[in-house]
Design brief:
Order of helices and strands: HHEEHEEEHHH
Number of strands: 5
CATH class: Alpha Beta
Number of domains: 1
Strand order of the largest sheet: 1-2-5-4-3
Structural class: alpha+beta
Strand content: 15-25%
CATH superfamily: Beta Polymerase, domain 2
Shape: globular
Radius of gyration: 17 Å
Amino acid sequence: MNAQRPPETLEQRIRRVVQEVVEIVPHNPDWPAVFHREKEHLESCLPAGSIRRIEHFGSTAIPGLAAKPIIDMLVEVVSLDQTKREIVPILESQGYDYFWRPMWSEDAPPSYAWFIKRDAHGVRTHHIHMVERRFPQWDALLFRDYLITHPEVAAAYQELKLRLAAEHPDDRVAYAKAKTEFITAVTERARQARSPSSE
């Protein structure tokens, strides 16, 4: 009789996910459709009234941009307390990895629910970030929209990502931190560029 493997500790789970390979691939025009399929799945399986909107962000949401082949989704939930009670058990039962709050930074934005969806081979396909309405993660949409309308900035971001992926091929934390300065600067530029009518 085979002994059952003991469940992972939180520390072991964190170590496993942050050391997975950083791979940048050419843009795939199917990525928006992949996002929409997962959006429909979440809307169909989660409790009615628990989510308000679902957005596609990150590099896979920007036409023509090379990216890690993982769909980033930003989900506005009515309540993170409700999310922990009702949504987490549903998605964990379907095989999603679940973490509460960013795992590698004490000065990160407020705690939130983060899920990783994988395919049948265990490869990441989606990152799902569940936050409430006024959380700072929504600034990611400013960055997304600015890159869509400024292809020269998108090209500079792609060049940066390719270089950092080569420098940090198996350290997702270092890769993400190294992009922060660029993302922060562009997001601030996008905020300043917004017209009053778009507030």
